[in-house]
Design brief:
The chain is mainly alpha-helical and 411 residues long. It has 16 helices and no strands. α6 packs antiparallel against α10.
């Protein structure tokens, strides 16, 4: 291959990461709109907190149920087509949410349509990145994962800014339109070089085969436990930390919401990119470097979460949240890359979809447990439960991966 051709192929591989980065940003940013504009929606339609909570609950249930289907689709048809379909579905759901005039349309468009669209994205998109990156897989997936952090922080800010200027409907209109436009851009940029389907359309029982792969592979069992622990912690943290900051340090809700995510995600960037690059370089000598680093990162969550539960000053609180973010980034660096190290290409999206589904179903208990603890013991006790969950998941994770010798699939 001539140098110019090789350079062009490298460019196209990284261009794909860039295209998917903005798609993932819109996916995560879109997820923040409802929470940011919740009070405005509730006021306009005179809804109860229970009704607003039902919309969020339906979204989570639909998301959890459709992630395995998303993985199955990503291993049966072209993965770029699944990504484009995801963007179109959740963006259309977002647009229609902005046009809703009553509770039922809100529930259908936000809870169901948007939930389905967002669930379709991650298994196919991460598998698509892995298709095009082998030696650079950890770095490419880590870079793609930064869109998650950016979408949470910047998406929340933009949604609030747009809602202040154009109303809550304007926020949904802007994000929905942007997603549809970006789906068209990805279609135009990938149509000439679309990869072949990951598996033959006649292949049957992918979900069953993927389940068996997980059960028979200790590293994948460990990652299911570890990711369940991580998401359990993150859901509880994102749900209740703003309230904890507001109550403890008498901050406004806007200030508490920003401080709860800004320091955490800033350091998460550092851990994510540094560990992604490091594991790419070391995996040739230490095939288990990704899973081992993930296990230690989970264990290291625990003391910083505990410190945040008892911190008496804002400085200590923000430093502990930042350190927690650094460890979270170190874990996320190996999240999909470590799964793909142990799974052949034709099953990657299905396996990752099953692991994500289990993790989100487990994590759905987190806000409920913390809410129940708050009533009797305060949010501090809830944060300590999160610390205990991270420690337990990390120790089990390490016990499994250190006790087994695993074959790495570099394809």
């Amino acid at each position: 291959m001539r140098p110019r051709e090789a350079g062009y192929l490298v460019y196209r591989r990284w261009e794909l990461v860039g295209l998917l980065w903005l798609a993932y940003f819109l996916n995560q940013g879109d997820r923040q709109i409802f929470g940011v504009t919740l009070s405005l929606i509730r006021s306009e339609f005179h809804l109860t907190d229970t009704q607003m909570g039902l919309i969020a609950t339906v979204f989570s249930i639909v998301f959890g149920l459709f992630v395995p289907i998303a993985g199955w689709l990503g291993d049966r048809i072209r993965r770029d087509a699944v990504v484009i379909g995801s963007l179109l579905i959740f963006s259309l759901g977002t647009l229609l949410t902005g046009l809703a005039t009553a509770f039922l349309p809100l529930l259908v468009f936000r809870g169901i349509a948007t939930g389905i669209g967002e669930a379709l994205y991650a298994p196919a998109a991460n598998s698509l990145v892995a298709d095009h990156h082998v030696e650079t897989r950890g770095r490419a997936l880590a870079l793609h994962q930064t869109a998650n952090y950016t979408g949470v922080v910047v998406g929340s800010f933009l949604a609030g800014l747009i809602a202040d200027s154009l109303g809550w409907r304007g926020a949904f209109a802007v994000f929905g339109t942007a997603g549809i436009v970006w789906a068209m851009v990805i279609w135009l940029r990938t149509r000439a070089q679309r990869p072949a389907p990951a598996s033959s359309p006649v292949q049957k029982l992918l979900l069953l085969e993927a389940f068996r792969t997980i059960v028979k592979t200790p590293a994948l069992i460990a990652q299911t436990i570890g990711f369940s622990g991580l998401v359990f912690v993150l859901v509880g943290y994102l749900t209740w930390t703003p309230s904890l900051l507001a109550e403890r340090f008498h901050l406004s809700l806007a200030q508490a919401g920003l401080q709860a995510v800004a320091w955490h995600h800033l350091l998460a960037y550092v851990g994510l990119l540094a560990m992604g690059a490091a594991t790419d370089r070391l995996i040739g000598r230490w095939p288990r470097i990704r899973v081992i680093s993930m296990g230690f990162a989970l264990v290291w969550f625990a003391p910083f979460l505990f410190i945040s539960s008892i911190a008496a000053s804002q400085t200590v609180m923000y430093l502990s949240l930042a350190a927690f973010g650094l460890c979270r980034g170190m874990y996320d660096a190996g999240l999909y890359a470590a799964i793909f190290d142990h799974v052949e290409n034709r099953l990657r999206a299905t396996v990752s979809g099953l692991i994500v589904a289990v993790s989100y179903l487990v994590a759905s208990l987190s806000p409920l447990i913390m809410g129940a603890l708050r009533a009797q013991y305060g949010l501090e006790a809830g944060m300590q439960v999160l610390a205990a969950a991270a420690l337990a998941a990390g120790l089990v994770f390490l016990a499994i991966v250190l006790g087994q010798s695993q074959k790495v699939v570099q394809a």
